[in-house]
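Illustration 12: Carbohydrate kinase, FGGY.
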Amino acid sequence: MRQGPGSVNPPRRGFLPPARENVTSETTPDHREATVMWLGIDLGTQSVRALLADDDGTVRGGGSAPLTGRREGPLHEQSPADWWTAVKAAVRGALAGGGRPRALAICSTSGTVLLGDDRGRPLTPAVMYDDGRAPGRGPGRALLLQREYGPGRVLHQADLIAARLLGRLPPTDSSHALKTGWDPERGAFTGPDVPGLPEVVPPGTPLGAVDRAAADETGIPAGTVVVAGMTDGCAAQIASGALTVGSWNSVLGTTLVLKGVTATPLRDPAGVVYSHLSPDGHWLPGGASNVGGGALTAAFPGADPAALDALAAACEPAGAVAYPLTGQGERFPFAAPGASGFLLGTPASDADHWAALLQGVAFVERLCYDRLDLIGAPVDGPVTVTGGAARSGYWNRLRAEVLGRPVRVPEVSESALGMAVLAALGAGAAPTLAAAAGRMTRLRETVRPEHRGRFTEPYLALVDALERRAWLPSDLAAHARTRADTPR
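Figure caption equivalent — predicted structure in token form:
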């Protein structure tokens, strides 16, 4: 069992938050204005999003900037320099109205790693979360980079941006560190021996203040508190308000991430489901699939999603059954490095193909809940949907039909809002994360299924196909069939 450099071993939860850093100085912004604001930054796969929210969750500004990467077979890399360029553009968009945040937090994709120097400057490209060249999630990708480029500090996306804002390399948070081998129960890194692992602090820990150089580049006032963040899935869960034991959040963007809340860690012998530790002391079990909205972009580049959604409504169920995986390899609800996407049958039209992809993602989402139920997770609580796909009213309704249960849609379904909530917690504006989220998040609507059972047959066809390919374990396939036969 190895500790990251500078990690501390407290008597409870494996580590103790370091003393809050005093960030008050002559560079600290004047916060006497009536409106208190918080900034969240979300480093996604296809874009960076920044959102400025006030203390009751009203969005005061937003900005975004695109990201691109390099995909060649199992390889998926991005340039860390592009992240900083996109962050500057997105943040300036969010602050264009003159808002001055008191604090900010950053989320990023889970399992994406790069190597940097002791100041947090990048030394390598970033190996993305779904890069298939190395096993072991983050640890394997870090070792891959060290073999190819030599020694370096292991960084996550959020670490790099925090370093640019602070002018120095800060500790990472335990949420991002989870995929690089951090065990939140033991408070130490476990697994492969990876040189250059970071210090680790709990999410919500103040890391320092934005320096003048970063303020000039981004427009963020010098002295703004930088708070340790969480992964994008956890950030979306915070934005959803799903922070009570038994509740679940499905985050659907380029990929699909499910996060729930339990009082104790959830054990998964296969290691497909993992648990983050909430700043409130609860556990956030879940998993991340490589299936998601990226399949739509890959199959229909430049398409109008709203127009195709309208046409897809006439294709229920679709004439083909899709496993809409782009690239190679699946992580959740089953682990299959050799998995690849496929279609059963031939779509009758573009609309039918689009419908098959939408339904296929929803089928994988349903299989995720079957997996969670199989290992003993409570899955009967409220389900909230967030991520870019939650902007599609049709897809929300379809997912409720496939899941056979109501889904709740927040008023703002942005991971960046979750980071604004965490920033408020880290700056001491709320006693708990749940209290901060209760003040800053609201539901827009609840979508209820009207035709239960309509998609059972194609769902089970996908289960059968995945099992035949030896990707889906037989016990999970059998459990999915049993649950399909049980009235909900």
